Amino acid sequence: MIQSDLDLFGPQPQRLASHTVLLPGFALGEVEALLDALRPVLRAAPLRHMHTPGGLRMAVGLSNCGALGWISDEQGYRYSPVDPLSGQPWPDLPPVLQALAARAAALAGFDGFLADACLINHYLPGTRLSLHQDRDERDYDQPIVSISLGLPAVFLFGGLQRSAQSRRIPLTHGDVLVWGGEDRLRFHGVLPIKPGVHPRLGERRINLTLRKAG
């Protein structure tokens, strides 16, 4: 069978909105390097289930790396330079992860992106993430870079109001999604993860979400 030019160069970037780009399989070549870099991070700052300001336990397991880490407790949602479990600074952001995010952001039109925070989300089958906005960062001019690993997910990408209709975007292992600009404050979430076993990561999805928080 003769490959087309598109096949030879792999999946092409998909512009989903004015400042939102999906890069299918963009991280596939660095999956093993990413996993190697994450192991010491999660040993130092294990996954945990935080609580909302209202006291509800979050379904998604969370951790962080970078100069700042996102946390939630009775005092609210915010970034902190310290892991509340250990009292120590969060583990350093692995260079391989920061560089991958910078390359993805540049392809999406956001040159010079230098993440200082990476939120590590751990999903099991049935886990979902309700619609929300990312509003805890200081500079909304900086994009969000989201890397998907493991089981597939359906990402909900809505509008600037919670009531706006959401688009359903399938995300698979190695996909990278970048959004910013006028899309930066769109509501977004994740439908419940369907049962399955990924050949590399088993019954889980890992999402690495990089931001410039400080």
Provide a quick synopsis of the model.
The chain is 14% helix and 31% strand. It has 214 residues and is of the alpha+beta class. The protein starts with a helix and ends with a strand.
Structural features, described:
The protein is α+β, with helices and mostly antiparallel strands and 214 residues long. The protein has a single domain, classed as Jelly Rolls. The protein has helices at 5-8, 31-44, 95-107; strands at residues 14-17, 20-23, 61-66, 69-73, 76-80, 117-123, 129-132, 144-150, 153-157, 167-171, 176-179, 188-190, 205-211. Strand 1 and strand 2 (20-23) form a beta hairpin.
List its traits.
single chain, 214 residues, alpha+beta, Jelly Rolls, 7-stranded antiparallel beta sheet, 4-stranded antiparallel beta sheet, 3 helices, 13 strands, 14% helix, disordered N terminus
* CATH structural architecture: Sandwich
Tally the beta strands: 13
Tally of domains? 1
Major beta sheet, specifics? Answer: 7 strands, antiparallel
Radius of gyration: 17 Å
Give me the strand/helix succession.
Answer: HEEHEEEHEEEEEEEE
- Give the proportion of residues in helices: 10-25%
Poorly predicted segments: 1-8
- Write down the CATH topology: Jelly Rolls
- What gross morphology would you assign? globular
Number of helices: 3
Secondary-structure topology with pairs:
Elements: H1 5-8, E1 14-17, E2 20-23, H2 31-44, E3 61-66, E4 69-73, E5 76-80, H3 95-107, E6 117-123, E7 129-132, E8 144-150, E9 153-157, E10 167-171, E11 176-179, E12 188-190, E13 205-211
Antiparallel strand pairs: 1-2, 2-11, 3-6, 4-5, 6-13, 7-12, 8-11, 8-13, 9-10, 9-12
